[in-house]
Amino acid sequence: MTEINRHNFANPQAMAQQVSADVGAIIANALAARGSALLALSGGSSPFPIYERLAKSDLDWARVSIFTVDERFVDSESPLSNIAALKQAFLATQASVLPLFDNIDDLSSAASQANNRLQSLDWPPDLVWLGMGTDGHFASIFPGPDFDTALSPMDGAKAISVHPDPLPADAPVPRISLTAPAIADARHLILTIAGEAKKAVLDHAMELGEASVTPIGRFMASLKRPISIYWTEN
Ligand code: 6PG
């Protein structure tokens, strides 16, 4: 098992303060060391109050590039689009917010486009920021026909198409996701979660390790890099 740094909080405000300070320091250090910062941020809903706080940090945002850890296969105008929500969250900054793919009709073309775009970036990202569902998915790595490929792609793919089975109720659409090895490349890896239910899922998955059927359990069992897990009670 890898090095796991756990940070627990009594409320979302306290967690947001710490996470935005820690991520701000990761960005500042990357800017100082390499002159730019590359961040992969999750969609969903829970990290957005933290993104809004982070966006108010005094950083040289013009040298920061952000892309999404995963994207729902929807038009970029859709309320389900992660890139639309991220663009909005960082609108007041000068950060570049980069879509994984353009609006196109075909899922496998979107996956190739995402993969090519990621291959052309200055890899690895300084930060990959993950969220997790109560079903134990993270990024868009779900049980289903693409699960094994997402965990260990044969061809070194950084992004693949995913057909979750079953489709998640809150956004029942196919996805494009970073693969587990691409996520694990990150210079810094964090996971933010809220509530007892997600904590119980994560703890149980980590206890089972390799034998876990959940994406997060399988990922944590294979992870060689440190990860910081931020959890708030509600
Ligand atoms: C997505 C996500 C996904 C998300 C979790 C947690 O696009 O669906 O990136 O992996 O992080 O579903 O979502 P919440 O933070 O909204 O609970």
Task: Provide keyphrases for this structure.
single chain, 234 residues, alpha/beta, 7-stranded parallel sheet, 3-stranded antiparallel sheet, 10 strands, 35% helix, binds 6-phosphogluconic acid
Write structural notes for this entry.
- There is one protein chain.
- By secondary structure, the chain is α/β, with parallel strands linked by helices.
- Helix content is 35%, strand content 20%.
- It has 8 helices and 10 strands.
- The strands form 2 sheets. A 7-stranded parallel β-sheet has the order 1-10-9-6-2-3-5, sandwiched between helices. The chain has a 3-stranded antiparallel β-sheet with strand order 4-8-7.
- Helix 7 packs across helix 8.
- It is globular, with a radius of gyration of 16 Å.
- The two termini are 27 Å apart.
- The structure holds 6-phosphogluconic acid.
- The site of 6-phosphogluconic acid has 18 residues, from strand 4.
Task: Strand order, main sheet: write it out.
Answer: 1-10-9-6-2-3-5
What is the gyration radius calculated from CA atoms? 16 Å
Contiguous runs where pLDDT drops below 50 for at least 5 residues: none
Q: Termini separation (Å)?
A: 27 Å
Give the overall form: globular
Report the total helices: 8
The pLDDT mean sits at: 97
**Quaternary arrangement of the chains shown?**
single chain
The biggest sheet, with number of strands, parallel, antiparallel or mixed sense and barrel status, is: 7 strands, parallel
Counting helices, strands and paired strands, the structural category is alpha/beta
| Associated small molecules | 6-phosphogluconic acid
Q: Strand tally, please?
A: 10
Taken as a percent bin, the fraction of beta residues is 15-25%
Q: Indicate the percent of residues in helices.
A: 25-40%
Order of helices and strands: EHEHEEHEHEHEEHEHHE
